[in-house]
Write a structure and sequence with these properties.
alpha+beta, 143 residues, 3 strands
Length: 143
């Protein structure tokens, strides 16, 4: 599932936006204007997802979901409240789309013949270096 498909599926009324003063650089604008946006989205109460999708989201995003069941996204990178609002919605949709996308199972493969030969060659070279270092020079012992 893509972020665009989720954008069509989730109504704007399912989001709760809270604006506050942003931190960081920005001069006097930071001190005067509430540009930071906190987006809250309740996965279960929204009724947008099927029970199977809800379970997948709760399992994969469990650490990001609050005790009240809300997924909280913050955005303060833009200078305007509207820009941060759009950015927060985009972050949420990408996060949900990634969580709902199933990753294909990895197929184990054997190493190639060339990579095995390269590894064994490196081992032989390293072994030779160790052997040379361990042998004491006869000329140094006699002096």
């Amino acid at each position: 599932m893509t972020a665009e498909q989720l954008r069509e599926r989730i109504p704007e009324s399912a989001f709760t936006f809270v604006a506050s003063r942003s931190s960081g650089p920005g001069g006097q604008n930071v001190n005067k204007v509430n540009t930071k946006i906190e987006l809250r989205f309740n996965i279960i109460a929204s009724g947008v997802f099927s029970p199977d999708e809800e379970n997948i989201l709760l399992a994969r995003l469990g650490k990001r979901i609050s005790k009240s069941g809300e997924l909280v996204i913050r955005s303060q990178s833009q200078r305007t409240q509207l820009g941060n609002r759009d950015k927060a919605v985009e972050k949420l949709l990408v996060l949900l789309a990634d969580a709902l996308t199933e990753n294909p199972e990895r197929i184990k493969t054997l190493p190639t013949v060339k990579s095995v030969a390269r590894r064994l060659d490196q081992k032989r070279k390293h072994s030779m270096i160790k052997q040379i270092r361990s042998k004491k020079d006869i000329s140094q012992e006699s002096e």
